[in-house]
Every structure is written in C-alpha cells, then in structure tokens.
Amino acid sequence: MAAKLTDLDLLATFLEIYRGGSLTSAATRRGLTQPAVSGQLAKLEKELGEPLFVRGSRGVTPTPRADDLARRVGQHVDQLRTALDPGGTLEGTVRIGGAAEFMTVRGLPALAPLTRRGLRFEVTFGLAGDLLTALRAARLDVVLSSVRPAAGFTATPVTDEEFLLVGPPLLARTVDQDVLATDPARALEHLPLVAYDGDLPIIRRYWRSEFGTRPANTVAVTVPDLRAVLAAVIAGAGVSALPRYLAEPALAAGSVEQLHHPEAPPLNTLYVVTRGTTTPATDAVAEHLRSRDWGVL
C-alpha cells in the first residue's frame, strides 16, 4: 500500500519547482517522474485554492502567492530535511564562489561545519556576474550571488544585506542635523566619498533609494574591497555605504558613526545559486546555506 503523501513532500516539491524554475528540474532533483511532480503541485494548489505558477514555454513563473509561500516555508522545510540526516558523511570537493568580503566574514565560517563531515572546498572570489558566468560554464558548483540570475539556474534567496551610511566622528560632526532632517542629500554633499568602484554602485543605490537623487559629492578614494573601504573611512578619508555585517564592529568601537537613519534601510538580497544538474555534495552545501539562520547582515 502506498504511503500517504505528507505536507512536507508537497512543500519540498514546490520549493524545487520554485528554485529551479521548471517541473523537469524539480523532478530530477526530487527523484520523481514529471507527472508525479505535476500531480504534487496540483494537489498543493488545490489545498491552497489558487495557482502557484504560470506555465510558459521556458518553464514556470512564480505567482506572488508562490513568492510569499517560499519566503515563509523555505528555511523551515530545508531544516527539516537536513534534520533527517544531520551527521551523515559527505564526500567530494565543491567549488564555490562569492564576494570576497561576504565569504571572508560570513560565508566561510558558515561552511566550516561541512568540512568536519568530509567535504572539501575550492573558493573563488569575484563579482556576481563573473561568478554566474563561471557557474554556467561548469567552472563553479555553487555561487552566493548578490544578483538574481536568469533562467537556467536554481536560485534561492537566503538573506538580505542591510546597508548603512557611515563616516568617521570628525566628519560626522560637520553635518548640520537640521538640514539633514529636511534635505539629507544637501546636508551630506560636502562629505568626500570612499567608493568600491568608480560608478559608485553601492553609494549611488543608497542615495537614490533614500534621497531620490545621485550623489553630488566628490570621491576621495576608490578601492575594490569593502574591507578596505571601511579602513579608509575609519582613517578619515571620507564616508561610505557599507553592509551592516562589516560596519557594525566599527560602530560598536566608536571608530565610525552612522550618518543617516532611514526608516527602512536599503537591502540587497543574497541568493544561493546552482546549476540544474547537481551532485549530493553540491546539494548538501546548498541545503546547508539555505537552512542557516543568517541573522541581520
């Protein structure tokens, strides 16, 4: 007699469809036939009373209801599936890529427990676009990406980076607080910037999100490493927008101050990305990262 299908089975299949963008890839990853995956999805949609995906020639597109469901249940389903085999031995080498700053401060510490289960890692640092190109070309197995990739990958949001505008105390004291309350862009425009790139990608996004304009400030330093950006800010070279996980120790030490306090700080979503075809080792890494409680970044 066939075992009764559980809600966990339905949700696990839903998540594979959501993350991979197709029923075919979900069937492969779940070890099921495509009709079986279609049947599970139909049952879940019937239970919820509304569709979760729009079918198309290149796969499926999640509905807003699917986005909401994935956010609410994804981490919990991953944790339950991991709990079924918490200490199993793993084999193989996983080639993983990510931003140097995030991987150094958060990514590698998060992966360390898997080395005790037998996994080995080859880590590549780089920009999201370059890393996703390497993933597509099978030069990497997993990417922690700040950019949501196009179709052809399995991508799962895992956490959000929160960006803060910080500067050294000496420069912070030059900001007119009355003007800051009414016209923050003008109050801050005299401050030199320390930027990651000449195009000011992070700073420009902060200014547009919070002030509705591009920064008119001069750029004092450009350096392609956010840890070096923070070091230059602490030394007094200028101000910058940095992820909380980098800035918070300096804030606690008093070596920088938060210059602007938005009601909702700018966020940047990080994704765990794999190709459609994976290995048990790659799956274990992706599940581990997806199920982790990253806290506020």
From TrEMBL:
Protein name as catalogued: LysR family transcriptional regulator
Q: SUPFAM superfamilies from the xrefs?
A: Periplasmic binding protein-like II (SSF53850), Winged helix' DNA-binding domain (SSF46785)
Show the InterPro entries listed in the entry: LysR_HTH_N (IPR000847), LysR_subst-bd (IPR005119), WH-like_DNA-bd_sf (IPR036388), WH_DNA-bd_sf (IPR036390)
Domain named HTH lysR-type is located at: 6-63
| Keyword annotations | DNA-binding, Transcription, Transcription regulation
Task: Give the similarity note.
Answer: Belongs to the LysR transcriptional regulatory family.
